């Protein structure tokens, strides 16, 4: 971002200014935006009108993240509200430094200087703590147009710029992007004549010249640029600059995929799969640590989970608050774990390669916006150790194929009973097995977890990791857990090789399971003595395409177990 020069002369040539506006309910923001219009005498405006309300957090972040200046609108009679502080905090997270505080509805209070001075001083104290030093405060009336485009005689005590003058004084300096190292995220790979390939993308930092030596991250492969094409321009070009969409060709047939990052050969980016990150949660449902979300950084999409929420931030006091999850509009700092390493820059260095969004894997809805701060040290130091005795060798010694039988169903469906019978039958056939039962595991490994949605997610995450290790040992592993969420079952499936995960849906209608109620849990849940009980006040998401479905209204536990063993033999798990 540039800086605001309130007293600078207007430019002789027209330029474009991206403006984001934000305010709370009843502050008159829409009326002020209408007065502002789309242009001044010197420049054109692109105005993104956003709200500080929590349900509009995503729009606020989108508008402010690309703005040259942000206008915060407040009601002079109300002063600096919690919504105003929250907006200011979000701007500081995004790295916005150009801020105009429009103290609106001055006419309602008789243009009292005291009301303006109080609001300005209050916001400046808060802004200083955020590093928002370049704030210009202006008393305005959207209803009457005071100090919006013309200076008002109603505020003789105010000697600063009008809103338009303040916006005209914003200096937009994009030269810094051109002085940074090259960052070219690959958006697509094209084949031209024969085997020649071109790679398309938009330069987000630095310059690229024909003949430059480049490095492809995360692979680290090095090549040299032989051709640069620029969108909207014919022929080859000697150089490309930030913001230009380009296609390049390389002298070698280097493997490049969508989401890779082209950088200078002598200035590679960091690559990591674990980070400390700041997350602004925008989803209707709360963030669940341990649950897998799609994470997009530029054109690259990976799977990410929140390993640990370090703290939430109270945007009113800026204090750190302990918490295990985030609700809509809340902001927290957390450890982020990815399913693969990615190239990145810290957000403070480059927004395009350090900013990300989180997407719910089931609904496709954006549920979070975040900033990568730094790679965790263990992400750099901990590497996978290759072992000579592997899963294939262990399985061959046992004469079976390792697999994971993942039993899922309502409480009382019969998961543990059937899984235990299957385990006994496999043992009698001299198969090497292990059964992880839900209740048994909560006596030890997961004894610290309760039954909230967040704890259920963590419960399944731990079990899936243990089961993965047992599968690697060559065993036929069974897990008997409710595991109510599809997302966690998909995460468990992704941990083992293709064909090794066998989802066994123990299908029992709720009424039947409740009638059985071997532990009396449904009765407690119906009385309200047991909270977050699956099927009553916590959801159970039915498997969509399980490998095996057992209808317990049609089969006895013994028949069900025999059917599962037969299916395992048919799948070649053992002969």
Considering the chains and any ligands shown, give keywords for the structure.
575 residues; alpha/beta; Rossmann fold; Elongation Factor Tu (Ef-tu), domain 3; 16 helices; 27 strands; 26% helix; flat
Descriptive account of the structure:
The structure is a single chain. This protein has 575 residues and is an alpha/beta fold. The chain has four domains: 3-173, 3-Layer(aba) Sandwich (Rossmann fold), CATH 3.40.50.300; 177-264, Beta Barrel (Elongation Factor Tu (Ef-tu), domain 3), CATH 2.40.30; 270-381, Elongation Factor Tu (Ef-tu), domain 3 (Beta Barrel), CATH 2.40.30; 391-570, P-loop containing nucleotide triphosphate hydrolases (Rossmann fold). The chain is 26% helix and 30% strand. The protein has 16 helices and 27 strands. The strands form six sheets. The protein has a six-stranded antiparallel beta barrel. A hairpin with a 2-residue loop joins β17 (292-297) and β18. α2 (57-65) crosses α3 and α10 crosses α16 (557-570).
